[in-house]
Amino acid sequence: MIRSTKRYTEADIATAIKNGVPKRNFVDRVNRGMPITEAQIRPVGKPGGECKYPKEWVAQAAAKGINKKLFYKRMDARWTPEEAINTPPYQKPKATPETPMTDEEVVACLGRIKYMRQHRMDYPLPFPKPMLKKIQKLGLSLEDIEPLEVHLDGQTAKGL
Question: Are residues 155 and 133 in the same domain?
Answer without folding.
Answer: yes
